[in-house]
Write the structure tokens for this entry.
Amino acid sequence: MVETGDATSDIIAIKREMRERQKARRAAALEVLGARINDDLVRQGTALLGERAPGVVSAYYPMAGEIWPLRLMAALKSNGHALALPVMQGKTDPLLFRAWAPGDELIAGVWGIRQPAPSQPAVLPDILLVPLLAFDTRGYRLGYGGGYFDRTLHDLRKRKPILAVGLGLDELEVDAVPHLDYDERLDWILTPSGSRQRSE
């Protein structure tokens, strides 16, 4: 599908409006669900990923309002996986990944997001846990609009096999996420209630 300039502008505007609605929906759901979602995510995440051959799992250091993935990462580490966190390089560049483990030093990066220190070695993840504001059954996700994870997934998929897993709440599912040619699809969606593979 090739979009015209007007069509692209329309989709970007629709995404912007959906983003604000989904932020409110996420906040309301988190207030109701409370801390138990962490236990649920650890249980569901280890069921999906824990028995896979050991590799490098990268998630993200959460910003305000985002689902906390670090307990799940610690559980995956106990199952033999190595861990990493992303580092932002430039506004139009893919993310870089550096090795990380619970207890390692983290420094403030762009927007104050915590990231591994430059002394930590760069790695290529095998499994990428991706934040989202909305998802649909086809694996399309709505993020914050910067395109960092789309660029990163596109780059990684050219270099090696990688499993992209969206980390979200059941309440964030929508009928269809508007998307453009450069939007990368997720392979799986992981929520507190379980995991599901994208439909083709």
Q: What stands out?
A: Residues 5-197 form a domain with the Rossmann fold fold (CATH 3.40.50.10420).
